């Protein structure tokens, strides 16, 4: 009986309403990935998002944000098993960027690889020849002066779900956070660890949010500021390069974020903390509707 007084919307009106709902949404549907990916690592470069493998998946692609298209870059070496690996950008200029990929299991072989990437969206024939001759767009082992492969990570360190950021006064330091509660500082100029510390938390730290808070406007380049979030843990981390010391400050974590595990996160204008809080509020609002 209640439905008799309900006005049925004409098809055209219904279509317009549906279109409005789609266009007013903060999310936009994009072209599907070429392959299913889990635990993938991504790095931005101009209008590209470089997708570097995933759990048991060695393929790497470039997604062009303006074209909404994908192009294949390369594969990881066949002897590399990916499970919660980490990829960071070491160097960046207009044409070439350098990527570092590392990770692996404890008490087994870890990988440490470099890629010099040039865009795959130029002249394909010329690019392929140049890339082969200069070893661009392929993962290559890091070799020391004695032709031995360099591996980031101690033999017993579990690097599944590891996260890292670049810092230091010369962008020469790699800050690594990993299971269970570890944080290490690795000097990329000497290929040596210079610090190991235990994070002040009751949570296990892996697949977490870890970003640099130090920006280009920072006056003291010897003080590196970072943020870490994992379940109920929120930490502001400071590293003093001159004294090789850490300071940790606990941050409040809203209840919604405390439920999160295996984060996807983005740092925007050095305000990742606000972004994480906003994500928690959005999730809370959606769950109440």
Q: What value does the average pLDDT take? A: 84
Q: Outline the low-pLDDT stretches.
A: 1-9, 13-22, 272-289
| Cα-atom radius of gyration | 22 Å
Q: What's the order of the H and E elements?
A: HEEEEEEEHEEEEEEEEEHH
Count of beta strands: 16
Describe the largest sheet: 4 strands, antiparallel
With helices defined by DSSP (H or I, 4 residues minimum), what is the helix count?
4
Strand portion, in percent?
Answer: 35-45%
Q: Span between N and C termini? A: 27 Å
Helix fraction bin: 10-25%
The secondary structure category is: alpha+beta
Biased composition (Basic and acidic residues): 10-19
InterPro entries: Gal_Oxase/kelch_b-propeller, Kelch-typ_b-propeller
Region (Disordered): 1-21
Provide an overview of this structure.
- This protein has four helices and 16 strands.
- With 289 residues, it is α+β, with helices and mostly antiparallel strands.
- It has a domain at 36-160.
- The strands form four sheets. The protein has a four-stranded antiparallel beta sheet, with no helix packed on it. A four-stranded antiparallel beta sheet has the order 5-6-7-8, with no helix packed on it.
- Residues 1-9, 13-22 and 272-289 have low confidence and may be disordered.
- Residues 10-19 have a biased composition (Basic and acidic residues).
- Residues 1-21 are annotated as: Disordered.
- InterPro entries: Gal_Oxase/kelch_b-propeller, Kelch-typ_b-propeller.
